[in-house]
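Objective 1.3, modelling of assemblies. Example input:
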Amino acid sequence: MTICLRLLSIIFLLFHPATLFAAPATGEITLIYSNDVHGATEPCG
Amino acid sequence: MFQQLDVKEDRALFLDGGALLFDKSKLPAGRHLDLAKINAAGIVEAYNHLGYDAVGIAKIDLAGGVDFLKELQKKSKFTWLSANLFDLQKKEPLFSPFIIKKKTGLRIAIIGLTGSGAANEPRERENYFIVAWQDLLPKFMKEISKQADLVILLSSLSPLENEQISQQFPNIHIIIQAGMYSHNQNPVLADNALICQAERQGKYIGRLRINWKKTGMWIDETSDEALMKRQELDRLTWQIKRLEDKGDPKIIYKDSPATLQSYDKLVERMKYVEKEIIDSQQNMNQSPNSTFHNTFLAVVPTIADDPAMEEIINQTRKKINAAGRSGSSDGNTMSDYVGSQACVKCHKEIGERWQRTPHARAYETLVQKNEQFNVKCLPCHVTGVSILDKKQSAVLSLPDSLHNVGCETCHGPGMAHTVNPEEAKLNDSPDAYLCLQCHSTEHDDAFHFEQDSKKVH
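Predicted structure (C-alpha cells):
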C-alpha cells in the first residue's frame, strides 16, 4: 500500500503541469546580425 | 572580435539574414561565375572565422546553383537555414529549416525563410522550388514553440510578408530581414516581433542586446523620446564613420584642429546619448517584459585588422587574381583608344597635372592589392572599358597604355582626334553621370561631383 502510494505520488509529480510546462527561461544575450552582404569584401582600390 | 564588439562569447549569437554570397541573381557561366564562386568561398571562410551561428538563404544566394551552395555548406561551420526551399524531385527541404541554440539558460530557435523574389519571378527553377511560407510556418512554429524560449526568423521575404508573419505568429520574437532597404533600420516592433535590418554590403553590423523575460513579450520602446534618442545615435554614428573612413582622425586631421575638435565633440556626444539610452533601458528593466538595446557598428578601417582574417582575404584575392590572369592575353591596341601618352604630346600641361592625380595610379593600386586581374574591379581602374560593358573579358587584354584612368575615360576615345584634331573634337565637359558609374556610393560615398571634378586635372 505504502509503495503503491509512493509510486502514485511520483507519477503525479512527473505529470503535474508545473513539471511538464516548465516556466520559460530568462536571460541576457547579445545578437550580432548582418544581412545583404552581397559578396562584398572591401571596395577596390 | 568579441572584444571589439564588447560581447561575451557565451552570451552572443552571430546571425545573417541572407543575401550573403553574390551581388547578382543571374551569373552567366564562365569567368564571372568562376570568380564569384571563389569570392563566395572566401566569405564562407571569413564567416567561419567570425564564429557565425546561422545564415538565412535568400534566392540570390543560389546564383551559383544549389549544388554549389551544398558544397559550401560542407565547408561551413555555421548552419544554412531555409524552411521553404525544396528539392524539385524529392519534394523535401534542401537545407535545415531551423536550429536550437542554448545561451545563458535560454533556448533560442532560429528559423530561415527564403523569399521568392519579385512577383513576376517563378518560384520554381531547375532543381528547386520555394514553398509559400503560409503552407509551412504553422507546422514548424508548433514544433519550435515547445522547444524554445526565444524565436528568431532569418527572412528574405518582403517587408509586407514579414509584418504579416509578425501578426500571425506572436511567438516569433525577432525577424532579421534581408532585402529591401539599403540603410540601417532601427528595430521596429510589429505586434510582438522586432524587425531588424543592417545596412547592406557589410558596412554596418547590428548589435542587439536583449534582456529576455518570462512573459515572452517586448516592452514598447517606440516612444517618441526613445526614438529620437536612437535617431540621434544613428546620426552621430554615421557622422563619426565619415570622419573615420580614411583612417585615424587624430592622424588624418592633425593639421585641421577645427575638424579634430568637431570629431571629439561628436564622440563625446555619442557616448552621452548611448548612456542616456542605457539608463532609460535600466529603468525599463523593472518591467516584467523583455527589453532590448540596439546599436549599429560601422565597419571602418580604424578597427584593428585581425591577422587570420587578413590572411583569408589575401588568399581569396590571390585566387581571384590567378583565375583572372588565366584569361588575360598580351594587349592588343583598342582600335579607338590611344592612351594618355598620346594626348600629353599636345596637352602637356594638363597631362602633367593629371600625372599627379590618383587617376594616373589607379591600375597600380590594384597591383598593390593583388587584384589587377579581378574583372569586378578593373573597369574602374583602366581606360576603354565601361562597368556597364557586358563583355568585360576585354578588360583583361588591354595594353599597358590603358592601365590607368586616362584622358579618354572622361573625354572619349582619342584615335580620330589624334589624326584630325580640328575636325574630331572630344567631349571637354564630362557630366556627373560618367563619374558616378565608378564613384558610386558603394565605392565612394564621400564623392561630390562639383568639388571632386575639379581635382581631376
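The radius of gyration of chain A is 26 Å.
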